Amino acid sequence: MNRISAVLMSVAVVGVASAQAPFTVVSPRNYNADTNSPVVREKIVLKFPKNSVPSSGYVGIFMGKTRGEQILDEKFIEATTLQQEGNYLVYRLDTKAKGIADDLYTIRAVLYVDYADRPREINQTQVNVRVGNISSIKIPNKGFNLRYKFNSGTQWKYRVEMRNSQSVISSVQQTMGVRAAELPAEAEVLRYLYSIESNYGNGDGLLRLQIIPRDGRRHEYYSVNGQVDKWYNYQMAGLYGRFTSTGNEIFTSIPFAHNTADFGPIRTGATRELFGNFPLPNLPTRPVRPGDSWPTRSLQSNLKGSVTPEDSLKATLYDRVPMRGEFVGVEWEMGHPCAKIRNSLEQGSKTKEGQMALFGKNDGVNTLSSSETIWFALDLGRPVKIVRDQTIDAKTVVNGMNSSGGPGPDGGGENGEGGRPGRPGPKGPGSTSSNLFRQAGTSRLGGTQMPGSGFQPGGGNNGGRGSNQGGGSQTMFIRQRNQLTFILEQ
Q1: Sheet holding 43-49, edge to edge
Q2: Model pLDDT, residue 313
Q3: Measured distance CA(264)–CA(260) in Å, rounded
Q4: What pTM did the predictor assign?
């Protein structure tokens, strides 16, 4: 080897060595109670130097409880490549998704590279952390007095995601232990606004409830009655109501534009309007602690049929459904200390006709379960997340069937009577609430609190679960689930 080659090789070796940073956790630092190190919540973000992992390397994550110098019950979490963010390689561990309880843990990161088609450990590092999703929230002796903070001029904006799923199974399949597969529909997504127009001395607030477009956009596309339309921001109309600091309705109304010679159009050029009627959850009226329960109510939209000038004379736009409230516990969610509340239909309560109208008429006996889970931010005085779930079970007898079969072909007929001759789909429980919103007159569209996706059981583009042979009759069980998720924009 000549002198020049030797010099070039030495330079290359030095270059590789300088590019390889030590494999160590630089953040978070080791938990130390004496130095009051921060407690980690929700997601643990491990940061490593940018050049500490070779291009062919990956990291195994292990986690166990820390007891003095010992690591107990260490478990393998996962093996993964690290993502570069700025000057660091980053790994995120979602403690809530993984079901990691509050405690002191040691997280061990092991660096591997593949050598001769086998993983080879070349380094490792570890850090102690204390998880405090629950224990870091102090509970007052008298409990929490949960109240909305209706500060005049503030606006609460949420991303709302709507999902609908359905399953159909025959009585024969049910006795055989067959589980019905859910047929999910695509999610509809919108933005929703609670604008605090004014507040009152007793804590009440005057709110405007309205669908809004994304920032920087003048319109959005929404499916209404099975048809996707363009909706401009001036067509997204607001509802106005006075609500107590616990979310109870005092009154709610729809300002109506009289398009007449006497009054003139209030909204110039507006030929139709889009409403979304999503009230805030009711909160307990007394201080509560984890484990407490109480009777409460859920406000459900009664905007059905046409939205007319008469609707502006109504004192209420909601039906009140009895629920059972429960304080599940406290936990951090989306960076905020929260009270986790769950409202559900009281056991033994009768299903109201108004509730069933959300899902349509059915031939058989129906059961309806409804719940909403609220993560109420104790520091903000508003929910950071709401999940509303409704499930309906319908039982119906289908003529022209004598054996169970698979799904019918695409392009079934109306009301589920589709498929090719000899394989009709069962008559489902009518259409769900029409897509995102319910049709309400020729000029206005009203929303429902728990809209479906427009999926018609046993019909439409999904065909039906038909039989292999015609003739006879068969009992079918249909389950439909609608879910709404509200996420506060921050």
Answers
A1: 43-49, 88-94, 83-85
A2: 64
A3: 5
A4: 0.75
